[in-house]
């Protein structure tokens, strides 16, 4: 098999896996952001339902990789995400705010403790999603939400960047104390 054929097969597999993941995350209907008062409450309920479904799907597939919670208003989100590399679990704090122009603008997901460790990151530890994720988000407003940002933004970013950071020695395994 030639290298070009192999790349095509891998790309097709990734696309199929991505499509399957996307198909299992409910699409959102309400086009509302934090400034939209009552409509935001409806949107937030949809966000939670989609997140719950995505997390449950991940658990069912033995692919649990993050925990999120928000403030009461649903405007600030925080939690943990992790990546398993060579049977070691690397855990990171994750945080983001819902932009005032949401859902037209995607949230900027940050891993503050990794700030400055990769070129694919902005000030404050915000991960770079401009080339691949943001155009996809823009084409799917208001159907995409936080679960989609995790699945199509943070998940792929972790899969590409964390092994590279580990191999470079920029991220070092630390055993968690019970």
TrEMBL record:
<protein>
    <recommendedName>
        <fullName>Ubiquitin-fold modifier-conjugating enzyme 1</fullName>
    </recommendedName>
</protein>
<dbReference type="Pfam" id="PF08694">
    <property type="entry name" value="UFC1"/>
</dbReference>
<dbReference type="GO" id="GO:0005737">
    <property type="term" value="C:cytoplasm"/>
</dbReference>
<keyword id="KW-0833">Ubl conjugation pathway</keyword>
<dbReference type="GO" id="GO:1990592">
    <property type="term" value="P:protein K69-linked ufmylation"/>
</dbReference>
<dbReference type="InterPro" id="IPR014806">
    <property type="entry name" value="Ufc1"/>
</dbReference>
<comment type="function">
    <text>E2-like enzyme which forms an intermediate with UFM1 via a thioester linkage.</text>
</comment>
<dbReference type="GO" id="GO:0061657">
    <property type="term" value="F:UFM1 conjugating enzyme activity"/>
</dbReference>
<comment type="similarity">
    <text>Belongs to the ubiquitin-conjugating enzyme family. UFC1 subfamily.</text>
</comment>
<dbReference type="InterPro" id="IPR016135">
    <property type="entry name" value="UBQ-conjugating_enzyme/RWD"/>
</dbReference>
<feature type="active site" description="Glycyl thioester intermediate">
    <location>
        <position position="128"/>
    </location>
</feature>
């Amino acid at each position: 098999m030639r290298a070009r054929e192999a790349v095509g097969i891998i790309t097709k597999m990734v696309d199929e896996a991505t499509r399957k993941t996307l198909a299992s995350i409910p699409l959102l209907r309400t086009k509302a952001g934090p400034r939209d008062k009552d409509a935001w409450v409806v949107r937030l309920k949809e966000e939670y339902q989609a997140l719950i479904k995505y997390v449950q799907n991940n658990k069912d597939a033995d692919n649990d990789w993050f925990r999120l919670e928000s403030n009461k208003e649903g405007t600030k989100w925080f939690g943990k995400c992790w990546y398993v590399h060579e049977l070691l679990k690397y855990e990171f704090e994750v945080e983001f705010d819902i932009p005032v122009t949401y859902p037209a603008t995607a949230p900027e997901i940050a891993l503050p403790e990794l700030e400055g460790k990769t070129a694919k990151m902005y000030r404050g530890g915000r991960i770079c999603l401009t080339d691949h994720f943001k155009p996809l988000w823009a084409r799917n407003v208001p159907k995409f939400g936080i679960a989609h940002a995790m699945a199509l933004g943070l998940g792929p970013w972790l899969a590409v960047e964390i092994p590279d950071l580990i191999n470079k020695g920029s991220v070092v395994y630390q055993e968690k104390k019970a």
